[in-house]
Amino acid sequence: MSTRKKVMLTFVLFLINALALTFFGSTLEQFSKTAKLDYQIKGYDLLFVKHLFTEYGNLGRAKYQFLTLLDVPFPFFLLAFGRNYFGYTWKKWNYSFIWKCLFIACICFSVFDCIENFCVLQMLHTFPDLNASEIKISSVATQIKLISLIVIYIFLPITACIQLLKWCKLKITRPHTKAS
Hints:
The protein is an all-alpha fold. It has one domain. Helices cover 77% and strands 0% of the residues. α2 packs across α4, α3 runs parallel beside α5 and α4 (96-126) runs antiparallel to α5 (132-173). The radius of gyration is 20 Å and the shape is elongated. The chain crosses the membrane at residues 64-85, 97-124, 144-165.
């Protein structure tokens, strides 16, 4: 069962990792204005990856490798937070179908982000001898991961707003009792 304490703990871990990725991710912009592979919702191919990795140069590829390693715990933090937060809200509100869909989105994100991370690390390791099949797998993983993440990120504020409205309604309708 999800508790408020579990939600807060997993949120803090998720937030710290997300902030670190955002902070360190911006350092790649000095090597290329093209977004990393992780953000290519339309996917990518062999030529795109070769061009991007060439633009990065040795130092940029080393930074990308560091960022990808920093990204390794992110899918697990998001999965734990999503399970706890959406379980604490939607499941508690007896909307188990919505909770299951959101939990499946969290699982999809986590699985496909792990696949993507593994493939990106492998591509960085083998560059310039890239494997087109590996790039295709990574590209599909990126697209599925991003679609799942969009669903999750859409439902985070929706869930928070509903939770706030329920809390306000409870405060308004709950009779105030005076201490004896």
